[in-house]
Amino acid sequence: MINLQTSIKTLTFSCPFFNASGVWCTSEKELKEIGESESGAIITKSMTIKKRQGNEEPRLYFDNYLSVNSMGLPNRGYRYYCQIASNLKKFKKPLIASIAGFSFDDYLFLSDKVEEKDFDAIEVNLSCPNILGKKIFAYDLDLSLTILEKIRKKTKKVLGVKLPPYNSRSEIEYLAKRLVEVGVDYASLINSLPLSAVVDVEKEKLVITPNMGIGGLGGEGVKPVALAHVILFRYYSQNKLEIVGVGGVKSGEDVYQYLLAGAKAVAVGTALLREGPKIFFRLKKELEEILKKKKISYLKEKIGKLKKI
Ligand code: DHB
Predict the structure, then answer these.
(1) Which atom of ligand 1 is nearest to the CA of 46?
(2) Which of 37, 70, 173, 178 is buried deepest, with most CB atoms within 10 A?
(3) Would the pTM count as exceeding 0.85?
(4) Residues 6+ apart with CB under 8 A from 192
(5) What share of the chain is helix, strand, coil (3-state, %, to 5)?
(6) DSSP secondary structure of 240-297
């Protein structure tokens, strides 16, 4: 028997993967499909205070290699997700509320609202790239830390943060150390690469319409960037910050790479768009196959065990 169990603080995951927030998680039907699958947890679409239609269509494109989106936070609003939370408990998996605000106060309001409900964790999304005129919160490091510090003081739930890609080690070093001091339990690394464009040669057009056709990139090209973030956040936090790897996971081998790099679990976005929740069954089989070949019974033993060059 191969044991794929992993954990983040008090949360136990029977398999080390789940849906990336934003994919297959906007309606109760989709969230239940994640619950019924081999996904190790369920995370909601980032919820805002008011429900939102999101940006004009086409706003999402994906193929065998990548995805680009400018969704604009379409979601049913926090009341909806708070109402259905108790219906998702029966799956006995960690249930994570992703929250997204347009202001400091929005984040505090949303964290208070989900605190009273059946969620096991709050993931503060500070990295939505697609709201024109709104900069990505997480690029203001001190503002982000202040938001998280306030939420930390109010919540007993596991507290995570979703961060965007950075381009300097010094920012990552500062953030990693301060997130530990603030008491954030885990970081999801990384959100989509924010300024990306994909051209359709046939139509001689960009593949999505909103925001000049420029949106967040996901898929296999993102994986090396995300892996570097996993490694650096882990290093600079002296392994104290737990990590969920996000970016380009489409096989059991990808999951294994992230775990070796130090992630406790991974979230699946672009490949989940392509395959639907049955992907988790395939990932499980592929991961078990790798462990069997390597004669490993407990996946946990391999977390962070990337060898030195
Ligand atoms: C959206 C995209 C994101 O990458 C994110 O983190 C939140 C929202 C969106 O456009 O809906």
Answers:
(1) 7
(2) 70
(3) yes
(4) 67, 69, 129, 215, 216, 217, 218, 222, 269
(5) 40, 20, 40
(6) -SEEEEES---SHHHHHHHHHHT-SEEEE-HHHHHH-TTHHHHHHHHHHHHHHHTT-S
Q: How many angstroms separate the Cα of 47 from the Cα of each of 51, 69, 96, 98? A: 8, 17, 11, 6
Q: What distance lies between CA 123 and its chain's CA centroid? A: 8
Q: Which is the closest atom of ligand 1 to the Cα of 216?
A: 4
Distance 54 CA to ligand 1 centre (A): 10
Q: Which atom of ligand 1 lies closest to the CA of 75?
A: 11
Spatial separation of the C-alpha atoms in residues 81 and 98, rounded to whole Å: 10
Phi, psi (5° rounding) for residue 62?
Answer: -150, 150
- 249 alpha carbon to ligand 1 midpoint, in Å? 18
The answer, yes or no, to whether any atom of ligand 1 lies below 6 A from the CB of 215, is no
| Cα 22 to ligand 1 centroid, rounded to whole Å | 6
Is 128 a residue of the active site?
yes
Where b means 16+ CB within 10 Å and e means fewer, 236-270 reads bbeeebbbbbbbbbbbbebbbbbbbbbbbbbbbbb
Does ligand 1 lie within 6 Å of residue 55's CB atom? no
Give the pLDDT of the chain (309 residues) as one tens digit per residue: 899 999 999 999 999 999 999 999 999 999 999 999 999 999 999 999 999 999 999 999 999 999 999 999 999 999 999 999 999 999 999 999 999 999 999 999 999 999 999 999 999 999 999 998 888 999 999 999 999 999 999 999 999 999 999 999 999 999 999 999 999 999 999 999 999 999 999 999 999 999 999 999 999 999 999 999 999 999 999 999 999 999 999 999 999 999 999 999 999 999 999 999 999 999 999 999 999 999 999 999 999 999 987
Kindly report the number of other CB atoms within 10 A of residue 186's CB atom: 24
